[in-house]
Sequence to fold (236 residues):
Amino acid sequence: MSKYPQQKRMLIAIDCIVFGFDGENLKLLLIQRAIEPEKNKWSLMGGFVEPDESIDDAANSILKKLTGLEGVYLEQMQAFGEVKRDPGERIVSIAYFALIDIHQYEQQISHEYHAEWFHMDQIPSLIFDHNQMVDTARKKLRYKAALHPILFELLPEKFTIPQLQALYEGIYDSVFDKRNFSRKILSTGLLIKQQEKDKLNSKKGAFYYKLDKGKYNENFHAFLNLIPNPDHLQLI
Fold:
């Protein structure tokens, strides 16, 4: 028996925005929706919160069911609750965004729901308000990336300066001068140079680096001077 008999039913959904980096480009993971309305159209990973689970548990279980991904960086973003956002029923969706190194998880991806990576410049029209969710998540990511080491969730443990620059350019939709970027990133003192080189992308090769997480936690503001435009730091 309901303890709130005067209240009408409303469903709670979860939608996951999964960003990935393949070493060259920032990408978004999408699936084809399996049910009506908008069946077979491109969609974020979504599902409903069950009565016996928390929203965090629901986000993780939905992501695993639809993509096979688990153990990834997943952060709650915000709720989307326009009255007619879903033509099927009154639904409030809580959006999460995930960050992964594509190569680290490529064997884990399930293709049951036709999961596919899209370059950020080639995202198709998505169902409902999912394009708005992606735009909001990207702005949130830009803000968070300037203040926290979350971008390193998108990189392998060892990475090159060109890879890091490509990631920053993808996040902030800007082109950085190579010499200036390299000079600024090394001047932070937060990267540990490795002996090995990546020789797959150039004859000369580029040295690998690792993030010094201890120093980063003490001096994360050192990365702020990498941001090309102060407007990118506007919190939404």
Observations:
- Helices lie at 55-67, 102-105, 130-147, 161-172, 178-187, 213-218.
- The longest strand covers residues 11-21.
- The beta strands are 11-21, 26-32, 42-43, 45-48, 73-80, 91-101, 116-119, 159-160, 191-198, 206-211.
- Residues 232-236 have pLDDT under 50 and may be disordered.
